[in-house]
Amino acid sequence: MKYALKKIVTIASTLLVISLLTFGVFQILPGNPVDIILGVDADPLQVKALTQQLGLDLPLGQRYISWITGILKGDMGNSIRYQVPVEQLLKQSLPVTISLTLMSMLITLIVVVPVSIFLAKHNNKKVGVLISFIMQIGIAIPSFWVGILLVMFFSVTLHWLPSGDYSPLSQGFLNYIRSLLLPSLSIAIGSSAVVIRYLKTTILDNMNMDYVRTARSKGVARNKVLYKHVLRNALLPTITILGMLIVNALGGSIIVENVFNLPGTGHLVITGVANRDFPLVQSVVFYLAATVVFINLITDLLYAIIDPRIRLT
Hints:
By secondary structure, the chain is mainly alpha-helical. Helix content is 78%, strand content 0%.
């Protein structure tokens, strides 16, 4: 309980700092939403009236308190560009980002364990070295560039999968999967490469430990030791890595969604920045940051439950 309370206090402090940074950064960005809405040649009286209407004439401290108070009450304000509540736009875009994140994580989990075990078994063999080299390339290439390559191959050349346009689940499960497969692969390739490299190293380290040598000396088969003991111990520290990958998937979706023209939160943020839609961008960025912090909290608590020694530090 003490460990959980300590983490919650840390999270609350982190969110306060994030809210200050998020609000502050968007106040110093060049550009004015009033000029974007009315144009640079607008009548000064119209500019003054709209500035007062949007609350941009208020002191920064008052605007921050008004914004963060609304956030805590569940009121994110109104979008300047779309003229609708921000939470309405978030409800429309969030399912796309969640679907993209979950599918990319599912692909990652399906690939990671068998490939990591295979590489650990063939660590110094040619096939293991070749796959490890490919994994290094996967780590190095950005997700958006992977997405462009996938589009060129699977959409432009082979015409197997669509290159963009999100198809919701209501329009059919197959179309839904097809519209998310390439962007999910774009995120999953880099994520899988990171986890495979980490998990392979952890498996190899465990294979050299005393408990493995003891089990082998008692006649236990190598594969049984690997799957029953080594893999279980190797997966424990991987929980932290998976938590980081969920965070990376959310961050990567901001760019990938724009590459594939998906109407997710990433596309919403980019559109908001381009139009200086400060209420929209501030609220969405803070919401995503809070989600990331919450995921990290869950990861830490889960790790502490699995390994009670963590709670003593």
